[in-house]
Amino acid sequence: MKLNSRATTVLALLPFTATAFQPTSLRTNGARLVPQYGSAATPVSIRSSSSLPTGLVMASDAAAAEEEQQQPPEKETGLGKKIFDAYVKTADVATTLFPLWTVICSGIALKSPASFAWFTTEYFTAGLAALMLSMGITLTPQDFLDVLKEPAAVAMQFSLCYAMMPLLAFGLGKFFNLDPALLAGMVLVGSINGGQASNLCTYIAKGNVALSVLMTTATTVGAIFMTPIICKAILGAVVPVDAAGIAVSTIQVVLAPIAIGMATNKFFPNFVKKVLPFAPVVGVVSTCLLVASAVAQVAEPILNAGLKLQIPVLLLHLLGGLVGYFLPKAAGFGEVSSRTMAIETSMKSSAFGFLLAKLHFGQYAARVPSAVSVVWMALTGSLLAVVWRYIPVKEDK
């Protein structure tokens, strides 16, 4: 699903009451509707005269209407339009600098974890829901119907998530000679589901947002049985997973916000036209807060990890994204689907991995790879998104 770079601003319910801020038309950009702001065309004046023959009157009216249509609409030069244009430009730059904001927020969280102590579990859940809602209003039921017509893409990404990534994590851990506890933590990172922030990065990268949401949901539900199976097969130890808890969380932070967003798009289209340009930056702000909150909770183990762990974790996400792109391309998938799968594969739900390590691994060191992954996952995914944002998407075959 393509992103118009001019329509990337904050999703907020601003009091747009001035006439100049009301969208007068919609322009279709791929599967996305982008509001166009400007003055309405001047009504056509129809002249009639009883002294003229009917045919001449109709011909005159038709000529006048055609002349009106050929004249370009007057450009609005009001203060409201200028403010909106400046706001769009600023937000476009802010969204492009997504990786920088991620680094800054992570750095603040590492330096002063107490700065994000206010972002409690309730806010964390609400932040994830806001992220998904900002994506949901860009979708329609037809988007998902189109995706379901091509289940091969979902199957491919599921395999990348639960086959390639765990093996890559195990190989990197062995190559860098990590201690058993750190190796277990690495495998756990590779064995968990895709993160919700991948949907935002897919949006920025001009990928298929509906496909991304479906993949995130599929791997999240799949974590109920895939994560314990993989950990048992590779590590020789079963990692219990709270299946009911994951199901509830999936409904809260993925399915419900997406459904609400789609319903809003369908039943309140005029409202969506007004707020749609602000969706991407709401996602950026939500993601930065989520990353900072997760980093703040595990700041000490991240700082103590050292390059011996930082490098393999970075390579896990970076190589995972590259394989997730080139393997689907080689298999015949289009550019948009390949970008989507690359970001989905690279961006894991590291916070969930940290929670599992904390609850089910006896050694504290097993938590550290997930803590380090929180930073590198967000940074790698956002960098891929921004790079692809400025690479034109060729027509998929």
UniProtKB/TrEMBL annotation:
Give the InterPro entries listed for this entry.
Answer: BilAc:Na_symport/Acr3, Bilac:Na_transpt
- Coarsely, its chief localization is membrane
UniProt keywords (A-Z) are: Membrane, Signal, Transmembrane, Transmembrane helix
Spell out where the chain crosses the membrane. 123-140, 152-176, 213-237, 243-263, 275-297, 309-328, 372-391
Signal peptide bounds: 1-20
Any one cellular-component term (Gene Ontology): membrane
Query: What kind of membrane protein is this, topologically?
Result: Multi-pass membrane protein
Where it sits in the cell: the answer is: Membrane
Q: Which domain of life is it from?
A: Eukaryota
Q: Which family does it belong to?
A: Belongs to the bile acid:sodium symporter (BASS) (TC 2.A.28) family.
> Would you tell me the protein name for this molecule?
Bile acid transporter family protein
The opening ranks of the lineage are: Eukaryota, Sar, Stramenopiles, Ochrophyta, Bacillariophyta
